[in-house]
Request: fold
Amino acid sequence: MNMLNPILARLKKMPRAALITIGLFVALGTFAPWLAPQDPSAQNLLEAGLGPMAAHWLGTDHLGRDTFSRLIIAANTSLVSVGSVLGIAMTIGIVLGTIAGYHRGWVDDLLMRIVDVGLSVPSLIISLAVIGIVGPGYWTMVLALALAWWPMSGRISRAVAVSIMSKPHIEALRVLGASPWRIYFGHLLPGTIGSVMVYATADAGTAALAVATLSFLGLGIQPPTPEWGQMLVDALPYLESDPRQVLLPGLALTAAVIGFNTLGESIALNRIPKPLTRRMLAARRLEVASWDKENSDA
Amino acid sequence: MTQAPVLKVENLQTRFKSVQRGKFVHAVDDVSIELYPGEIVGLVGESGCGKSTLGRTIVGLEKASSGRVLLDGVDLSALSGAALRDSRRALQYVFQDPYSSLNDRQTVGEAIDEALVIAGTRTLEERDRRTKELLDQVGLASAVRDRHTRELSGGQRQRVAIARSLAVNPRVLICDEPVSALDLSIRAQVMNLFLRLQKDLGVACLFIAHDLALVRQAASRVYVMYLGRIVEHGPSQELYDRPSHPYSQMLLASAPEVDPRIEKHRRGPLMIGEVPSPTNPPSGCRFRTRCPLAVDDCAKAMPPSHGLSPGHSAACIFAADLHRGKRSALLHQEASAA
Reply:
């Protein structure tokens, strides 16, 4: 129990509602195949469009599939795809960002100009271009989003790496005659990963939204795999006759996005030096806002 | 001083690009110093005069734009890569701020162990033994080993930092105000520890400080730096008793006295004006803009260093007069103020 105390103390500082929402999301997503009461793809047209009842707790969709099971499996889809997108994007971003932060000079200039190019093109446009070339599909979507996402994490990693590199403890290592490998892998990389992971939490909400957006447009996760964005588009024709079908996946998505944003920002504000966090969060909010704008245009 | 110097710095120059386009900040300009084995040499001067930059350039944290650093007669500027790292390891640096010079993620044991690994101590038993020995030398209990450095006090951290630099068996230690970030009560402890270690291990030490009393107590010789140049150097007893450069005279006189009776009669105000910009230093003698003795000749050329007595020299055209007490920057200052 003693080992848990510091973790519990840290958890207490976070916004409780967001923590519960994300905890629920992660738990449901992880154990979805065992938790879903029914086969999410089993169709039964005789039971299509039914409201909540004992057999189907949250009702059924237009093909008679169990909405509750589909929502749970969709949490899994969302969790896995968001995790992969952020995993790939963070890896690319951290590698390039730390190399730029370590070397400075022309390497830094070159890599950061590439990042600038990446940041200047709206991420949805990059994703759409990649999907347009390769064709829609699950892994295409993950790669497309990762490609659109890494410049942001590259920028953050570089900022963190530069601040670590200028610390006297790195200078002390250089005076001791440590090899560049030791400084990079032993001190710079672990330090950067620790800080950048915090931003990953804050980014997860936006990434979830992006996955749902692409699926909504039919460019991401393909049927019959349940996904919130795709459930929304399936239910759209019944918006007036049966708003429940639209509301449920919409609410699930909204809760996940808001939960990740709130949780991520509170972690970031607690863990990272203030001025850096403010700038990064402001930049990230702009990013989120641009997604909304692009979506309404699309 | 018949021994060969362990560290010889020849005409070292460090400049940084200025914010003004095409201009340079001459932080260290044509500085030559020597350190003999086992001695403590003080380096004093106002903040911003280039003391720290000089120290950082010697250990390679800043790039010298010209000049040489010779360690045991080996020219470090001729080496590169692993050979440079191996040679330069004998030059160690103790940072001013013990809070940022240690990695917070490491425990004390890990920090020292890493230094030992870098220095090439391969076996685990050997490193374990040396870590214990080093902690003992700097007066820390071996229980501290498993504590994270962030859990320690400033004094303890500075002890760990000293232990870490000693782990690689340095011949020269450059201490950049190693105690000025510490509490007064801790300061004396760490300073005494440092002096004892320096004596026991026979490490030569360049002691950078603006605490003049501390330097007088610790150092056998002193270099006085002003605006990137050494203006005077000599044995500390003689330099403190008979400072022979107007800047040294004024710097020493501006240090407050502990005894209030003396302090009351102290001459002042002494140092006037600001340090000129190192981007655009005055022509000739750099101190002339603030010097009460300045004459027209001072602006023409940098005054050469005048030897005054063995090991004591000052770069001022009046150095001989000042040394003999025929002139005094302080009296002159008072006379012109009156």
User: Anything to note?
Assistant: Chain B has a mean pLDDT of 86.
